[in-house]
Structure formats: structure tokens, C-alpha cells
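Field reference: "sequence" (input) and "structure" (output). Example, tRNA 5-carboxymethoxyuridine methyltransferase:
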Amino acid sequence: MTEDRNFDDIAHKFVKNIYGSGKGEIRQAVVWQDLESILGQLGESKPLDILDAGGGLAQLSQQIANRGHHVTLCDLSSQMLELAEKDIEAAGLLPQYRFVHAPVQEIAQHVDKQTDLVLFHAVMEWLADPREALNVILSQVKPGGIASVMFYNQNGLLFKNLICGNLTHVEEGMPHRKRFKLQPQKGLPPEDVYQWIEEAGFNILGKSGVRTFHDYMKDTRMGEYTFEQVVAMEQKLCRQEPFISLGRYIHVWAQRPLDK
């Protein structure tokens, strides 16, 4: 039986290779563009309550906290929480944060009210039962609130393997290769995630593809470009098809309707 992934054993490596990379920078830029729109829709006339579920270093929620909002950061990894707390302290944002060391599935035991905005980013692909966890997280959103969900895209994983010529691996069902410790255990079919969100009673407001072409670019420099151009082009293309469905990750945000 597959278990939920805890990053205690490779927390520092994860931070360096994921957050401190060009891929991480593109992810931050694309999703923050969406979050600014979400915050505008929620309205920022008063501090919002944010839940960063499985938030790792809390890089995006730190940007939100910097705007005066309150964040509960929950993570299964004590090492990741420790690194996050140091980072948050260095940014002068500790008063805005509350830390919860627990699996996201148990978050209801640690909070006493629903939240305006939930961030659930790059977590489901590491879980044995992603739908169960998603339902728990969605239940924490108050009526009128928004869930921001990012997941590892099965389509992107398939396409990457196809263009790399890994056809035998595709034919075998793309089993997880244990030697790639920082690669998620599985990709999630977008249509499944969208259905889970809608079946929970939420209305999908928008979708973005995260790294829609960067990861497919050849290693050799065939063209003329800068990394800044890559980021800008990713931000430009991310909300239109077919690029959404080709993203290595997909960011989808949805709103719980107000009670009638």
C-alpha cells in the first residue's frame, strides 16, 4: 500500500532543487499571478484567514501574509515546518502565522473555523488517497471562500515521456521510478480533479497550466531567449488551451457558493 510522502529525509534537498530552481521560479510567477486575481475577488478590506495545507516553505502564503492576512501553515514534515518558520521569521512575518504539524487530512482537529482561502499546492500527487484529502481541505472553505488547488498533471507527465522517447515506460503505465525522489509518485488526470471539486459543490473559476512549455524545451540552446522571456511567455500562455492541459502542473481555483 502506498503511503503519504513525508519530506523529513530530504527537506533541505527539496528546498534547494524545487524552490530554488528555475522551475520553481516559473511556478511561483504563474500561480502568484492567479492568486493576486483571487485576492482581488475575495476583497482585502480586512485581513483574510488563509490555510496553507501541505505548504512546505510557504513561499506563496508569505506573499499573502505580507499583505496583512493571517495564515495557518500545516505540514506533515517537521523539517519543512522548521525551515519555513526560519524563513518566515527572517521575513518578519511570524506574527501573521500559526504552525500546525499534522497531516492535511487531520487539519479539522487543529482549526476552529472555516477559512476564506485555502492553498493546496503540489500535495495530492504525493498522497495515497488524493481525493479524500481534497475533500477534507475543501470542507475547510467558508461559503463564498475560494480553494486554490495545484496538482501534478498526468497529461504533462505523459507528454514529457513521449517526446523523450520513453515509450516502453509509457506502455508499462509509467510506474514511479524510486531513484527520482523529487518526482511525484503519480500524475493526476485533470478531468478527475475537476470532477472531484465540482462534486464537492464548488464552482470552478479558472485554470492555469504551470510550466506549459519550459520543461519540453531542448537542453541545447537552439533559439535566442532569456529566462525572463520564458517566465513572461509562461505567464502569457498559461490560461489558454492547449497550454493549460500541457502544463507539468495545473492550478485550478474554485469557489464555495454562498449559503442560500
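The chain has ten helices and seven strands.
The mean pLDDT is 89.
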